[in-house]
Request: fold
Amino acid sequence: MSAVNETLIRDVVAEVLGRIGGATTTITQPVSAPAAPKNDSCGCGGKKAASAAPALRGKYGVFATADEACAAAQEAFLQLQQKGMAARRKIEEIVKAMAEKNAEPWGKIEFEETKIGSLPHKVAKLGLIKLVPGVDWLRPDAHSGDHGITLEEYTPFGVVGAITPSTHSIPTLSGNIVNICAAGNAVVFNAHPSAAKCAAVAVRAYNEAIYRETGIENIACIIEKPTLDSFNALCKNDNTRLLLVTGGPMVVKAAMQTGKRAICAGPGNPPVFVDDTCCPTRAAKAIISGAAFDNNLLCIGEKQVFVLDHVADKLMQRMSENGAVKLNSAQLEKLTKAAFTFKEGQGGGCAHASVNKELIGKDASVLAQAAGVNLPADTQLLFAETDVNHPFVQEEQMMPMLPIVRVKSVEEGIALSLQSEHNYKHTAVIHSHDVENITAMARALDTTLFVKNGPSPAGLGLGGEGYLSFSIATPTGEGITNPRTFTRVRRCVMVDNLRIY
Ligand code: NAD
Reply:
């Protein structure tokens, strides 16, 4: 018996039991059928959807296993194919409107579940989903000449398996749905276990609304209790045509070993270089706003600063005047002991630092307490002078505490920026008005995002030009993901005809 048939049968049994009041472990939420779709834009989809997959109804995208979710998503992909561009536009509209409307309650449940970052910034991130590009990005390319017309179209893959991080669970999931479904695909999420409940709330709400408006069920599915096993099952499932991974080094490595094509939005450790041609006040304000945002959870957030020695004092003074608080060396030492654990290197080599998860994404005032200082709860950012080998420089620490390293020359600043970025090819920032310095750093760092004279979020259209995504594909090279990232380019050729002049 095929896996799909098994799944269908299991679901029929579960639904029948649910209707007669029994409970089964495979049903992850009330078994009542979804409300009938409000309209049926193509005139047949609602009825067809109802008859095509009756057993999968009532789940609103939340499934116990990867195989069930993939089967439902494949069915949804076929429904979306039938309903065409109008349905894709409707899904985009629904997700953007609901993310904005629910920003406060969803930001709150994500904050309560993960206990990292800042509540106002969790809410703000959901209000940004409207900036994620959708269906309009899929204009075909045409070639017209003496031998006729050729059209290259951006077409869907089918089901995309997506992995989301704990740092922005609902925002990543929401932006991914916009991109992936705008391109005509369905998606199955394996969320971070510590941010999976809030993700399921959003998935359920999106599917209810999408079903009501389009008649399509389960276009965005989620595995209710994600594990490494469910990750492996999602990657292995034959319906999963493509992976989108947003997370740290381990999951990127795991995805690349699956044999499936993987678009990987991997880790970063963004350096900032400040030279003596920039405006120190503007640089200080930009650095604070980028590094303080959501307590520095963003992969693009400023994580360490290299500054020319003779302007370092001025930069730090401007940072203090604009809301950041400097730690002295004793306070830094205390905080470092709390923020990292150190393991002896092999054969007596250098000790290796790992970040204490308890302090990731915590408020600056909480870090200050660990450093032995009492600061007001609304303190935005801490900073301290360190050397380049300090763990706050070398580890992707995701805390509102910025190490500042003095350098003697532009060359040294660029070289240390490059070293501390660890070849993630993610994000780097410069504050300079010298085009030669800017060009030299851009070429040396070779990052996906390179921001000049602004805070890091400017690289995602937040204060700079360009569009937004919460998944920046770095090691695999697709860049800031958009609907075209999730398409196959297919060429259609008419020989010697249809050219109109
Ligand atoms: P994480 O790597 O711990 O988890 C990310 C996801 O991968 C989660 O869903 C987790 O369950 C899963 N995962 C982790 N290890 C796995 C393994 N071995 N096999 C299968 N799945 C595994 O990261 P996090 O703490 O949730 O998020 C922070 C990290 O993500 C940082 O490194 C940050 O830079 C990165 N990130 C990158 C982007 C980007 O766009 N490039 C965006 C957000 C976060």
